[in-house]
Amino acid sequence: MSGYHCFASFYDILTENISYRERAEYFDALVRKHGGRKNILLDLACGTGSLSEAFSEMGYDVIGVDSSEEMLNAALDKKFDSGHNIQYLCQDMTKLDMFGTIDVTVCALDGINHLSSLADIEKTFERVSLFCEPEGLFLFDINTPHKHKNILGNNTFVYDFDDVYCVWQNSYSEKDNRVEMSLDFFERGENGSYTRYEDGFSEIAFDEDIIDGLLEKCGFEIVGKYDYDSFDPPRADSEKLVYAAKKADR
Predict the structure, then answer these.
(1) Staple partner for 134: which of 25, 62, 193, 249, CB 3.0–4.6 Å?
(2) How many whole angstroms from its chain centre is CA 249?
(3) Furthest C-alpha separation in the chain
(4) What is the pTM of this model?
């Protein structure tokens, strides 16, 4: 299985250490810091909807977009339980198509890195820009080449949960700072036996000057750039950067 099919089933288990409320509060602080409007928020690459739920609790009118039907099915289950008025759309980021303009777009948890090429990143920026309100905000985090080469690299990670065992193997290509990720999940059944599932995907990373140039080309002004989960400036060894970009009012 590939393309986030079985990965969607185990995603919430693998990310249970993430406080989505704190992530939402951090992005909300960026919105306030850079004069954004707390109105319509697009959660791009929303996955299973945990961040969308947190934004909705904070008073945003949330639209969640993801290309994986499996991820969105999990998001809809959460929406059913919470009763939040979140709209979910199954769309490719490079072909984003909204019904109207968006005040704040957030793309978190490596969503941009999951795109397959620099051309696809540019297409995504173009589509976000097209539907962004004048002076609206585009906020996203992105893994750096440093992280791909020195942290993810050719390493293997093992996760041992109560009923799921995961072996995560990476293969790094220095040519394009791409990391191919292969995942094997072993899920324990009621009788104690394990069922194995396989999935895989890749992430790419680019130097920040390239990302800067694409944002400016697509009509954004970079109003902030931070080391991950902070308001500190980027460092040479930053593993992840957070961008705050504002749509130029032309």
Answers:
(1) 249
(2) 26
(3) 64
(4) 0.93
